[in-house]
Amino acid sequence: TTGAQTSPVRPEGELTLRYDQRIDIAGVFLSLENVSTADTSLLTLVSEEESGDSFRLRACGTGSATLVYRIGDTEYRTPVRVLPAPISLFLILGEADALGSDAPASYPVKAEEGLVYHTVPRLTSGTPLSTLNAADYVVESLTENTYGQNTHKLVCPTDNLTAAGEALYASFSSALAYKWAEQTEERVWIVNTAERGSTISDWSPQPGVTVENYSGGAGGAYYRTVALFREICHTLHREISAGHYTLSRIGYIFCQGESDAAQSAAYYLSALTQMHNGFREDLSVRIDGADYSLDFGSLIACRADRSAGSTGVRMNGPRCAQYSIANATSESLSDFYM
Questions:
Q1: How far is CA 318 from CA 176, 214, 271, 311, in A?
Q2: CA dihedral 12, 18, 21, 23 (to 10 degrees)
Q3: Number of CB atoms found within 10 A of residue 197's CB
Q4: How far apart, in whole angstroms, are the C-alpha atoms of residue 301 and residue 145?
Q5: Beta strands in 95-194 (DSSP E)
Q6: Once rounded to an integer, what is the mean pLDDT over residues 174-199?
């Protein structure tokens, strides 16, 4: 796991934490005093070692307080400040390789709790994701997995890609989240809307069609993703307004093409560009007066087929189109990477 603490700390001076951070502190927990907000659960006691050597706290609000604890016969009073955590939102799109398995990963890549959140639109029961029911697939709180009036539950709780989860539908997204959290010290919200067997036509918006008037046919995966994104943004709005997070970046990673192995490079490139231009407009949101838009799209090269030999990496139409995106110099594709 990344972000895992190796041993309990003895704070020197003020202790600064980020929202939803866990920390192990040497000593015996006594109390939390002088809480600056109405939320008295600014810090919650997660666990204590029976030996009394250490205890674990979790930051459940933002503000300041005084932490009182004891080491041996000595009492310590440490000022604590909890700040909003920067968070990036990444969408994982494409077909089976992007979605991953509904079984626990054999060699899971997991982050420390509180660093990575995960949403996969799969319910324990209920109807499949559509443009009309996207709200059923999004938690109201990233840290509590609350569902409002929805009686169904997501197959993957938000901590699925952390040390507390089973790493269902991990695909490459668990490694992406792990490294992003490690290198940027940001939180990451992974939203995986990949669909097995989907074609580039399923991911391309159609002229005159919107989420509101979509009634079936081409573009289905695209419009379902945009509908889910809008509901995701409602949760982000609540969390940001509560002072829990600040939104850092919005991006998507696309891995698709095997289902389009027979298509020409020109056809695939046109549809892929159409998808990216659509997401540029539709993956944007305004929260508390600030505008956020798509920062980047990124491709992971598809296989030409499932062959074990070299035919799986031959340069067919979709692979040629993807590599042309990677080598494009035009300004219109400057935010599209591989």
A1: 23, 26, 10, 14
A2: 0
A3: 9
A4: 33
A5: 116-119, 187-192
A6: 95
Contact yes or no for 122/156 (Cβ under 8 A): yes
In degrees rounded to 5, what are phi and psi of residue 182? -65, -45
Q: Which of 24-33, 119-128, 203-212 is least confident?
A: 119-128
- Look at residues 287, 277, 200 and name the one whose alpha carbon lies nearest to residue 247: 287
Q: What are phi and psi of 270, to 5 degrees?
A: -65, -45
CA 138 to chain centre: 12
Please name which of 41, 50, 3, 49 lies closest in space to residue 22, comparing C-alpha atoms.
3
Instruction: Check whether 24 has a pLDDT greater than 60.
Output: yes
**Segment 242-278, tens digit of pLDDT:** 999 999 999 999 999 999 999 999 999 999 999 999 9
Question: What is the predicted pLDDT for the residue at 1?
Answer: 46
Using the 8-state DSSP alphabet, how is residue 225 labeled?
H
CA 80 to CA 276: how far, in whole Å?
44
User: Which distant-in-sequence residues (6+ apart) come within 8 Å of 171 by Cβ?
Assistant: 92, 97, 98, 99, 100, 192, 194
Looking at the predicted structure, is the pLDDT value of residue 3 above 60? no
Q: How far, in Å, are 71, 87, 239, 309 from residue 288 at the CA level?
A: 44, 16, 11, 53
- Structure tokens of 173? 């997204």
Q: How far apart are CA 144 and CA 162, in angstroms?
A: 14
The secondary structure of 171-199 as a DSSP string is: TTHHHHHHHHHHHH--EEEEEE---TT--
**Most confident segment among 86-95, 296-305, 315-324:** 86-95
The contacts of residue 134 (CB under 8 Å, 6+ apart) are 121, 224, 227, 228, 230, 231
